[in-house]
Design brief:
Blueprint: H1 3-9, H2 12-16, H3 24-38, H4 47-63, H5 66-80, E1 84-85, E2 103-106, E3 111-113, H6 114-117, H7 133-141, H8 145-150, E4 158-164, H9 166-171, E5 173-184, E6 200-201, E7 210-215, E8 218-223, E9 232-233, E10 246-257, E11 266-269, E12 285-291, E13 297-300, E14 303-310, H10 312-317, E15 319-325, E16 328-334, E17 343-346, E18 361-367, H11 375-390
Parallel strand pairs: 4-12, 14-18
Antiparallel strand pairs: 1-2, 2-3, 5-10, 6-9, 7-8, 11-12, 13-14, 15-16, 17-18
Length: 401
């Protein structure tokens, strides 16, 4: 069955519980919630939950890809919108007709058997009498029939999450991730054939995945029924995966997180997603990174920001103060008569850049007032206040006017 026919039978929006005009963010949010509830690790032995987990993963894979979503919406709109209709607007009941002998009327008024559109069977499911198979394939796959038939179905993309400390996110790290998903069968190595055997070229279609047939003055191509359009046959299927080449299992992946990753960023791991069937390419794995806030550091792009507590005397007289960085500490010179709240810049001591080098360290000075002074310190402050007044300094000069 072609993926586009599956699209007609499946409502991906309903699978995820979102509206048809939902944003990509809403789709991702709904998927994460359902995937967390239905994950096989949380429902061991629950085949119904596992089946729903696969369904929501496939729905998310299509709807989160703008091109796939557009094609999916157009496919369903074409058949539900009356371009092919039978008695009413769209297929009866809103679904895809399963009866091979059901006839429909096109917008031109001509009758046809909907089973013929996909190269299906006649009434009663007998021998194929199809005629529109290659029309449908050409409409949606936009490629040659032979490449469409023999191209295996790629596995779905998957998404998982990880949480990092601020320093690990800024400097980069490697984290192990536990993923439970359909993966290549370890017994047959994804071929679907029993160990010691291998798939053979389908003799009915000579490996093309299509068979040709003449009907009157017309010639038609349709998917080979012997190999379901794959071009190969498995005579002795692998008993562990029932010939699919795929089995749900838990695996640990060591993921390298690049330096400078930010909260909410997605990292793509090519080929680490759901396995394709019978040796088809795997989908991709997307890792959403969450970064825990740090009590000392914050970021502005690749610049590292710190707020430095200083005394009044350090601002007035000047000082050199040790300031922490991501990889040690650095001495920062505070010029005399520095104002409270001023930001001092230290070049190249910020967050590493992917292109090389690093951002800057931005140090903002903030006066720390002592909670209590002894008699000597209080007397010194009084003398300082008197000297300040004698010098004519007014901290509120021009303020409030």
């Amino acid at each position: 069955m072609a993926p586009q026919r599956e699209w007609l039978e499946r409502d991906f929006y309903q699978d995820l519980g979102v509206a048809s005009d939902a944003s990509t963010e809403d789709i991702q949010k709904a998927y994460r919630k359902l995937a967390n509830e239905l994950h096989p690790d949380k429902n061991p032995g629950n085949t119904e939950a596992e089946d729903r987990f696969k369904r929501v993963s496939e729905a998310k894979s299509v709807l989160s890809d703008p091109e796939k979503r557009k094609e999916y919406d157009e496919t369903r709109a074409m058949f539900a919108g009356g371009r092919f209709r039978g008695g009413g607007n769209g297929f009866p009941g809103g679904g895809f007709p399963g009866g091979g002998g059901t006839h429909y009327t096109s917008t031109t008024g001509a009758d046809f058997n909907i089973g013929d559109l996909f190269g299906g069977g006649g009434a009663g499911g007998g021998e194929s009498t199809g005629g529109f198979g290659d029309l449908f394939e050409g409409l949606f796959n936009r490629g040659t029939r032979s490449s469409t038939a023999t191209r295996p179905k790629r596995g779905n993309d998957l998404e998982t999450e990880t949480t990092l400390t601020f320093k690990d996110a800024a400097m980069g790290t490697t984290v192990p991730l536990r993923v439970t998903s359909p993966a290549p069968c370890t017994t047959c190595h994804g071929s679907g054939a029993k160990p010691g055997t291998s798939p053979r070229v389908c003799p009915n279609c000579n490996g093309s995945g299509f068979v040709s047939r003449n009907q009157g003055a017309f010639g038609f191509s349709e998917p080979c029924q012997d190999c379901q359009g794959t071009g190969s046959r498995i005579d002795d299927p692998c008993t562990d995966c029932d010939g699919s080449g795929v089995k749900v299992r838990a695996r640990t992946i060591n993921v390298r997180i690049p330096a400078g990753v930010e909260d909410g960023q997605r990292i793509r791991l090519a080929g680490q997603g759901e396995a394709g069937r019978r040796g088809a390419p795997s989908g991709d794995l997307y890792v959403v990174v969450h970064v825990t806030p740090d009590k000392v550091f914050s970021r502005s792009g690749n610049d590292l920001k710190v707020q430095l507590p200083v005394s009044i005397s350090e601002l007035v007289l000047g000082a050199t103060v040790s300031v922490p960085t991501l990889d040690g500490s650095v001495g920062v010179k505070i010029p005399a008569n520095t104002t409270d709240g001023r930001t001092l810049r230290v070049r190249g001591r910020g967050v590493p850049k992917r292109s090389g080098g690093a951002g800057d360290l931005l140090v903002t000075v903030k006066v720390a007032v002592p909670p209590k002074l002894d008699d000597a310190a209080v007397e010194a402050m009084r003398q300082y206040a008197a000297a300040e007044k004698a010098a004519g300094f007014d901290p509120r000069a021009g303020w409030g006017r």
